[in-house]
Structures are given as C-alpha cells and as structure tokens.
Design brief:
Nucleoside_phosphorylase_sf; about 25% strand; alpha/beta; Purine nucleoside phosphorylase; Pur_Nuc_Pase_Ino/Guo-sp; Rossmann fold
C-alpha cells in the first residue's frame, strides 16, 4: 500500500467524523495544550482510532486530533505530536501534516518547548523560528516515490513563511509580548545535551535546541504549505553553569509562556 493510499484512508475517515475543510493546522508542543480551551470544538478523534496514524507515547502528549473554530476560522489541532525518539520514522512523524494538508489546510502553525542556547534569551520567553538546523541525521523526504507527492529537491532558502513571521512580530509588538527571533536546532534526543554539545550548537549558530518541528516544517515546504513556528524557551543551556534537567520545571516554564503564545496564534489566525 502506497503512502498516498495511507493518507487518503486517514483523510476519508476524518471527513466522515466531521473534519470539514479546515483553514489552519496547529501542532501543539510539550506542555502547550491550553490553546484548545479557546477552540469551539466540533469533532475530536484519538490518534489510535485514525487509520494508519501513529500513536503518541509520551505521557504529557495527549494524542488527539481536534477540529473546531478558533478566531473565526476552522482549525485542526494536533494535541500531542510524534518524535523520532519514540521509535518512529520521520515519515510517521510527518504523516499528520500530510493528512491535514489533504483535509484542506492553507497554513500551518507549530509550537515546541526548547532550550535556550543563546544566553540573551531567558526561560519563560518565546522565540519565533527564523531558520533551522537539521541534526536528526535523516529527512522525511528520503524515500522512494517521494516525487509522486511533490518536488524531491525542496528549496529551503526560506522555510518559515516571511509574511506570517512579520505578522507575528507585529502582533508581539502590539500586545507587548517579548518575542525573540532565531535559529532552532533539531536533535534526535531523548537525552538532553552535554556541555560540549551545547558549546557545539552555539558555534554552529543555534539559538535554541529541541527534538521536533524540523521534520514537519520540511514536509510543509514539500507541500507548498506556508508555515510559522515558535519555541517556548523552557530552560537555559549555559555549559559553564549547567544544572541537571528538571522536567517538572520545563513543564512549568511552558505553562508560564503559553498565554502569550495563545495570543500570538489566535491573533495571527484572525489575519490569515
């Protein structure tokens, strides 16, 4: 069975469950599920009920696809995402993006929790992703037959939509939200970085590091789907003063910054 057949099966199932022509797709990162409270929900399906869909295995990822209205637009939200560190292939990780595109989304918004490599950025703040570095050692486009789904050699000179990013920066200014802009490095994980790895990431130009987002953005570009992404900075990665990681603090920092992210996403969706 081809990938295209898998995508069509999942899409047909969701259409029959009321997922009708969404305008915007949203992927919510670790500890960032509260945006759903702002959605007038019309349909929701657990991932494990959707044909060919991977299943979320991380305890703070809920594992539901949600459809409804937000800021006057029809949206489809991923509450919980997939990671290569859970044992999935990058084709699994990005399968939902292809399904949301097949459902009809015209824009994609992505959030993640990340560590601040740039020490001018502080935990609890937000970074708009301007560019990225793929350190996952693989590509979601590296498979036979990819050319049937779009251009194989996808241009990545501007992977994050410039117009959406400009609007987000303006909205941050209008709402008095501190919004950094920088480069996101995506690693495999799930282990956190060593001091030497943090130094390396800084040298190669990363401002933040995480374990997601880049595969979904590559596939969005493959599909010609405008995408914007933000990192919620949950910890500060100072190799000279490195403290053991505290997952509870990371979740708490995500919760601290989340209201600002919700304002940015909601106001941006109004303008799309």
């Amino acid at each position: 069975m081809s990938s295209i057949k898998y995508i069509e099966e999942a899409t047909d199932y969701l259409k029959h469950r009321g997922f009708d022509k969404p305008d915007v797709g949203i992927i919510l990162g670790t500890g960032l599920g509260k945006l759903i409270d702002s959605v007038a929900i019309e349909a929701e399906v657990s991932y494990n009920h959707i044909p060919n869909f991977p299943t979320a295995t991380v305890e703070f990822h809920k594992g539901k696809l949600i459809y409804g209205t937000l800021a006057g637009k029809k949206v489809v939200l991923m509450q919980g995402r997939f990671h290569i560190y859970e044992g999935y292939s990058l084709r699994d990780v990005t399968f939902p993006v292809r399904v949301m595109h097949q459902l009809g989304i015209k824009h994609l918004l992505v959030s993640n929790a990340a560590g601040a490599i740039n020490l001018n950025f502080k935990k609890g703040e937000i970074m708009l992703i301007d560019d990225h570095i793929n350190l996952q050692g693989d590509s979601p486009l590296a498979f036979r037959g990819v050319e049937k789904m779009g251009e194989r050699f996808v241009d990545m000179s501007a992977p994050y939509n410039l117009e959406m990013n400009r609007k987000m920066e303006q909205l941050a200014s209008d709402n008095n939200i501190k919004l950094h802009k920088g480069v996101y490095a995506s690693v495999v994980g799930p282990q956190l970085e060593t001091r030497a790895e943090y130094r390396y990431l800084k040298i190669i130009g990363a401002d933040a590091v995480g374990m997601s987002t880049v595969p979904e953005v590559i596939v969005a570009n493959h599909l010609g789907l405008p995408v914007a992404a933000v990192s919620i900075l949950t910890d500060e990665c100072d190799p000279d003063n490195l403290q053991p990681v505290n997952i509870q603090e990371i979740i708490a920092m995500a919760a601290k910054a989340e209201p600002s992210m919700i304002i940015l996403f909601t106001e941006l969706i109004k303008q799309l």
